[in-house]
Inverse folding.
């Protein structure tokens, strides 16, 4: 049995990087807890620098590891940058790394990249306090940019795959057999899209295959749902054919921050299909949905004002 210290970055009054209503400290803690559970299931001794939303000084994080005589220290973070196009995953080691630090970084880094990232930013050297002051081999993971919509989508979509990859890399570094992967999900694609497909089938009789793939039929199913809602809520008398033609376009009631209901849910699902995950699919147009809308609009060269959401989402061909 080895001792692994898992450090969830930031916490308490220190939110870390922020994108809309999404905070680095929360993503980091969720991943850290998932790693704890997986590593404990493999018989490892796991020590958390924090397991709740509290602030722990940087020096104390290293001290926790040093007092425990840890075999490995893993610090979990999300990146952030003022330019939302910045993206990708990177692993940090201390400025003057030891070979054992590099070996730990390589074991974890390669597996995360294989799990699926937007771009591989490589293994880098950084003068971070938690790396510099920790006696054990120490690595710091930047699991994508919280300021990039696609990286957020990948973090949510691949959350379990990333947790499995990190666990396997840690076990490889510790010289133990990697844990078996969990059975694959019942869908072949994105489980979020699979849930959208089930909901479209249940609410609107879309008759979609639940394959997790946002192809033309799923996109038409979203338009059918929109047409159905416009008919039932606003008496538009549209033909429910899944085609976003002139009559549907003219009948649209747009939503914006503060709106609620099934049309907001359809907009959230369409955003996810376009690669701009809005967070919760709750039919509530909150800050995270607004941030996803603005990121989509900016990416498509539209006015990034959070307005005309439905028109903008179907501005492109279906």
């Amino acid at each position: 049995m080895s001792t692994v210290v898992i450090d969830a970055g930031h916490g308490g009054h220190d939110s870390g990087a922020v994108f809309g209503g999404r905070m680095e400290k929360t993503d980091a803690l969720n991943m850290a807890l998932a790693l704890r559970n997986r590593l404990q299931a493999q018989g490892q001794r796991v020590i958390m620098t924090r397991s709740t939303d509290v602030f722990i000084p940087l020096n104390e994080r290293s001290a926790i590891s040093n007092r425990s005589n840890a075999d490995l220290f893993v610090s979990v973070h999300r990146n952030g940058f003022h330019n939302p196009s910045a993206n990708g995953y990177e692993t940090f080691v201390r400025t003057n790394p030891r070979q054992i630090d590099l070996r730990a970084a390589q074991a974890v880094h390669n597996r995360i990249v294989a799990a699926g990232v937007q771009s591989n930013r490589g293994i880098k050297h950084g003068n971070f306090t938690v790396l510099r002051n920790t006696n054990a081999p120490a690595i710091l993971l930047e699991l994508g940019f919280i300021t990039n919509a696609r990286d957020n989508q990948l973090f949510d979509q691949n959350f379990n795959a990333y947790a499995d990859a990190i666990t396997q890399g840690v076990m490889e570094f510790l010289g133990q057999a990697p844990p078996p992967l969990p059975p694959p999900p019942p869908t072949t694609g994105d489980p979020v899209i699979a849930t959208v497909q089930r909901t479209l089938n249940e609410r609107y009789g879309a008759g979609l295959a639940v394959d997790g793939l946002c192809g033309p039929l799923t996109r038409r199913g979203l338009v059918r749902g929109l047409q159905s809602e416009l008919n039932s809520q606003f008496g538009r008398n549209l033909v429910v054919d899944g085609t976003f033609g002139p009559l549907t376009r003219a009948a649209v009631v747009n939503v914006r921050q503060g709106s609620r209901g099934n049309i907001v849910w359809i907009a959230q699902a369409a955003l996810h299909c376009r690669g701009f995950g809005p967070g919760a699919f709750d039919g509530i147009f909150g800050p995270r949905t607004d941030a996803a809308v603005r990121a989509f609009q900016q990416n498509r060269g539209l006015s990034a004002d959070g307005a005309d959401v439905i028109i903008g989402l179907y501005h492109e061909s279906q």
